[in-house]
Amino acid sequence: MREINTFIALMLFGLLFSTAVLAKNGKPVQLKCEYLTDPIGIDISNPRLTWKMEDSRQGAFQTAYQIIVDTDSMSVVHNLGTMWDTGKQAESDILVSYAGNRLQPFTRYFWKVIVWDRDGKARPSEIAVFEMGMMGVAHWKGAWISDHHDIHQREAPYFRKEFMVKKNMKYARIYIATAGLHEISLNGDRVGDHRLDPMYTRYDRRILYVTYDITKQLQSGANAIGVVLGNGWYNHQAKAVWNFDQAPWRNRPAFCMDLHITYDDGSTEVIASERDWKTSLGGIISNNIYTAEHYDTRLAQAGWDVVGFDDSKWQQVMYRSAPAPLVTAQALHPIRNVNAISPQSVRKLNDSTYLYDLGRNIAGMTRFSAEGEAGTTLKLIHAERLGEDGHVDLSNIDVYYRPTDDTDPFQTDIVILSGKGVDIFMPKFNYKGFRYIEVVSSTPIELTKDNLMGYFMHSDVPPIGNIKSSDSLINRIAWANNNSYLSNLFGYPTDCPQREKNGWTGDGHFAIETALYNFDGITVYEKWLADHRDEQQPNGVLPDIIPTGGWGYGTANGTDWTSTIAIIPWNLYLFYGDLRPLKDNYDAIKRYVDYVTRISPDGLTSWGRGDWVPVKTTSSLELTSSIYYYTDAVILAKAAKLLTRDDDHLKYTALARKVRDAINSKYFDEERALYASGTQTELSMALMWGVVPDDKVKAVAKSLAERVRADGSQIDVGVLGAKAILNALSENGYPDLAYQLASRDTYPSWGAWIAAGATTFLENWDLHATRDISDNHMMFGEIGAWFFKALGGIKPDEHAPGFKNILLQPHFVKGLDTFSFRFDGPYGEIKSSWRRNGEKIYLDVVIPANSGATLILPDGSKRNLQAGTHAIIW
Fold first, then answer.
1. Spatial separation of the C-alpha atoms in residues 651 and 597, rounded to whole Å
2. Mind telling me which InterPro entries this protein's record contains (predicted)?
């Protein structure tokens, strides 16, 4: 056995480090409410409050905390909390649900936390804020209003109202719920920087409202507010195979708005959506979330949203019934234009056609400017690929569109110029997946690179993790992985940003660990889980796209896809240490598992889609579906125990055992250590999800390794196997082989895509496939998590979740000289880096305050690490 020399940093490096620089001394930082910084418009009556302890000293930990909440900031400064004062709690918790006096709608609350460090010294935080929103439909003053057109009207409706601010104002908020999409302007300036508000939901059951701070935009005296509405998923006019045009909620967009003004004298005023608003059509002559947006600059009404505009030709609005019984706050990271991307090149194909290349595949939109004769029509065709003739090729992404005519071409914005100088266009209510933009003008035109700008658009979730290695291909795979993930995050995780934009459940849970290692995404996933609950049938069945207008309750929406309802809450618990996702979804998980049990009396099920898009080999549908059934039962049993539902814990523990036994009885060949026909997917899934009997794990892992080598040391899996294979190998004695698969640059592999120039993940291993060929998909994205789990070795500990205790088991694989990761977990930033120097490995680890780690070295030996910096030589 190799000799191990372990030097804990408290004695060596860490001691020198902590005395060489000023140590951070225990102050609580990053105070958040509902995982958001100083949020406004919170609905929940017991919001979660979180913080981190900033203390770089060795062994730093929190011995106690005190939370103080009040409506007066100065009271909080002086440690007075009339709303809530927890008193000194001798706990290390950094996540606490509010439990003070009843919170009131539209009220601003100030709070801070005092923590006591390892020396018993009190360390107060800065003051943070959270502000409550409507807290129920009873508090709305406005009416649901719309114009007089029906679902077939192509033009977008515009609305306006003027009003007076007669007293000195303290602050002002807009609360707006929309069936469809909205963009708001105040005195001619756009309100906020969000895109595609509000997020897509099951509109006949839940609509989200958005809160905006307009204090700085509102002016004393006369003001004008404008609202323009988009169809979004609410009025899906284009026809496609998903039948959104037949959604039961479909109607002309409408909105309900309350504009609250709080004056210096303490009085309040509400400017509400009412019949005194006026409406008209304007420059947006067509908008479709699925296809594109069309804009006629000649029809734009300049100044429509400023004071003094002549709206005598505008119509009165009409009342509409409320679209849904539930209107709740949009408390999540919004969609934004996050990155501006200048074209790498522009090529003139002829005197009226130009090809722009952004150099990378993104989800988002383009901002286009041009000058030309009035009536000149320009088509901006967005595509991922080029044809052999050098023009854009949409054939890989328009395959599910079912147009009834040629007036709404796929991913093609249409702009009609005014002839009055430079016209600027950027769609308000659409996004696309693309790298190339072909601009086709109806008349000759001169364009340059400066006429177009691309915007990478997605839910603006904070990045919290990254990896870096001596293998440039691994680095590029990780970068492309994150590009694909963000390209498919629009208030819910999607499969692709061009062809479908659907919330495929399987894609969502295949990538959940990749998501949570790289981004602070809990707000988006909790919203999506609410969509799950809204979509669930009374018998427990879920559709395999969520939200849906009705499509997806078919025959294949089984366990391998809709296990999102169990797998995602469980991972949120592991990564955040927060029981609420499990509590909120417990009944839904239970109904789902009970349904599978009713249709699977012998413990096995064939309900599912199977190993979608394999390289070449098909795996047993009953085996893979039953493994996910087992996984769901295990999660439910664990959740029952955590929530002290003892009878359920016993019941579902027994069910999980029954399913596991049924799988092994039918599919496990003990003598040959094989499952079913012994495909890579069958073996790796059995290993990763814990189906293999404990005393047979080593033999099955050996069989998997032998199968991979027999297949030419390359993958032969679809989406289910891609989730499992790298983990199954690295966690069971074959990390070098797993790394060999992960770092290949020839077909079939993740690296083959990158070597071919891809900047996002593809939908098919085969670059020359003729179907399933989107160039921006996330369903093979588990590798992004594997980099952290295997090469970095970081995993949450389910017995001390939220990285209270960090499991560290890095694999120092052959062929890799250095590897490092950074991950900003709930307790603070975790860092680890290792480098090879001859026969030795040098490992540096930083553990955040108030947490610890269990380090497992390659020979199986363990070391318990305190908070602080550690240097280990192996």
1. 12
2. 6-hairpin_glycosidase_sf, 6hp_glycosidase-like_sf, Alpha_rhamnosid, Bac_rhamnosid6H, Bac_rhamnosid_C, Bac_rhamnosid_N, Galactose-bd-like_sf, Ig-like_fold
